């Protein structure tokens, strides 16, 4: 207990009043922080387009010397070229049970086929060979369509059940973590989670000169910020980072949800990036432009019924809408025209998120059943209606599948 001198009334008075002073001080600090943060961060979600009206930029800026043409050259092949091989992992509880792949999995496989044009699409699985072949021949419609995509190749793996230190690997997700590392270490290429959907080509990333390419995780909260996703990873075979990552995952696995995956990868990638050309760490928008949280899943998946459905009477539009058209022009004029077109009233909805900087949309749907106001079905009609951000993002690939007859028009 603190003892005060009998005549030191001012000190005693100060400490007696401390609870009130502390409260006032806390309020003042919080108010200051709120004021500072309100000026430091934009009120609107930065992922929505047209924050700056670039239509006000005059066309003649493109006439300046040196800016007429932005010539694009294919990157030179290097020792760190990442193979154009896609990897998915599908672990099952019962290797002899039915092998089933749904519509959303078709979206990511077909998008990989369309945008990456890979040499091969591996599906690493511990399902039995007989179960796989039965699904390929007699499975449900979406399973057969997935397995019929050109280049899809099974790689039958042994289920990792225990680490070298004797720690049991009981969850399917953790077994998948180990299998994906083994695949990238042996083959190199592009690993994708089953809910990670390619939106455009990654050739520039594969030829970037880096042995590994990873990306940050988007998060709505500070708690989830700063991590690197292991749901999308690119690597050359036997890269230094993957060698260390694979061994460290085995060494430090303790059964924790992300101990030897996201947390370990974040620590390793940030530290090993000091080695020239070893790892390129991209901003979160590149691979995971949305978070795993309920509010973000609402933003991505919930339909905006005030926007009329975009496909009527079973007919697809002849051209892709402006928001889903990529920028192919290599000129300054073409780029500026594309930017201005996206700002034209009606070309992009007010609720629409701009995925222009995203190579992959890693869209978790863990909380979809908790999103009220719709039937919670992510099916063909949902995509073709284009009333949600998810539908608009993946629509080009599904439209292509319909145009090519992979998906019959009578299913629309």
How would you describe this structure to a colleague?
With about 400 residues, the chain is α/β, with parallel strands linked by helices. The chain folds into two domains: about 85-285, Spore Coat Polysaccharide Biosynthesis Protein SpsA, Chain A (Alpha-Beta Complex); about 295-410, no CATH class. Helix content is about 35%, strand content about 10%. The termini are far apart.
Supply the helix-strand structural class. alpha/beta
Query: What is the H/E order?
Result: HHEHEHHEHEEHEEHHEHHEHH
Q: Which architecture of the largest domain per CATH? A: Alpha-Beta Complex
| Through-space gap between termini | 78 Å
Largest beta-sheet details: 7 strands, mixed
Summary of the model, kept short:
The protein is an alpha/beta fold. 36% of the residues lie in helices and 9% in strands.
Write the layout of secondary structure elements.
Elements: H1 9-16, H2 18-40, E1 85-90, H3 103-116, E2 120-125, H4 129-138, H5 141-147, E3 152-156, H6 172-186, E4 189-192, E5 196-198, H7 203-206, E6 212-215, E7 232-235, H8 240-252, H9 259-272, E8 279-282, H10 294-301, H11 332-343, E9 360-362, H12 380-385, H13 389-403
Parallel strand pairs: 1-2, 1-4, 2-3, 6-8
Antiparallel strand pairs: 4-7, 5-9, 6-7
Helix pairs in contact: 3-5, 3-13, 6-8, 8-9
């Amino acid at each position: 207990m603190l003892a005060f001198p009998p005549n030191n009334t001012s000190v005693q008075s100060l400490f007696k009043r401390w609870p009130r002073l502390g409260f006032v001080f806390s309020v003042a600090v919080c108010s200051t922080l709120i004021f500072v943060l309100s000026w430091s961060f934009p009120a609107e979600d930065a992922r929505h387009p047209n924050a700056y009206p670039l239509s006000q930029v005059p066309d003649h800026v493109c006439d300046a010397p040196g800016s007429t043409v932005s010539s694009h050259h294919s990157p030179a092949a290097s020792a760190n070229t990442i193979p154009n091989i896609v990897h998915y992992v599908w672990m099952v509880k019962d290797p002899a049970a039915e092998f089933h792949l749904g519509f959303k999995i078709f979206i990511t496989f077909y998008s990989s086929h369309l945008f990456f044009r890979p040499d091969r699409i591996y599906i690493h699985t511990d399902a039995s060979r007989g179960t796989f072949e039965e699904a390929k021949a007699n499975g449900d419609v979406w399973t057969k369509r997935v397995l019929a995509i050109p280049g899809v190749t099974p790689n039958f793996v042994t289920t990792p059940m225990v680490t070298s230190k004797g720690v049991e690997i009981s969850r399917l997700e953790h077994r998948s973590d180990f299998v994906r590392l083994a695949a990238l270490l042996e083959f190199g290429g592009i690993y994708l989670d089953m809910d990670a959907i390619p939106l455009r080509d990654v050739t520039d990333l594969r030829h970037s000169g880096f042995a590994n390419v990873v990306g940050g995780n988007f998060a709505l909260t500070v708690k989830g910020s700063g991590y690197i996703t292991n749901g999308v990873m690119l690597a050359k075979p036997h890269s230094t980072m993957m060698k260390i990552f694979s061994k460290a995952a085995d060494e430090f696995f303790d059964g924790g949800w992300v101990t030897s995956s996201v947390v370990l990868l974040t620590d390793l990638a940030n530290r090993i990036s000091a080695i020239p050309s070893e790892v390129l760490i991209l901003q979160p928008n590149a691979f995971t432009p949305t978070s795993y949280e309920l509010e973000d899943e609402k933003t991505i998946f919930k339909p905006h019924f005030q926007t009329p459905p975009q496909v009527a009477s079973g007919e697809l539009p002849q051209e892709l809408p402006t928001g889903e058209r990529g920028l192919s022009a290599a000129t300054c004029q073409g780029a500026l025209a594309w930017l201005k077109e996206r700002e034209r009233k009606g070309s992009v909805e007010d609720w629409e998120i701009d995925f222009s900087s995203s190579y992959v949309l890693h869209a978790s749907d863990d909380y979809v059943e908790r999103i009220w106001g719709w039937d919670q079905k992510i099916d063909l009609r949902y995509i073709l209606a284009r009333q949600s951000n998810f539908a608009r993002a993946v629509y080009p690939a599904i439209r292509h599948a319909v145009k090519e007859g992979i998906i019959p028009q009578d299913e629309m």
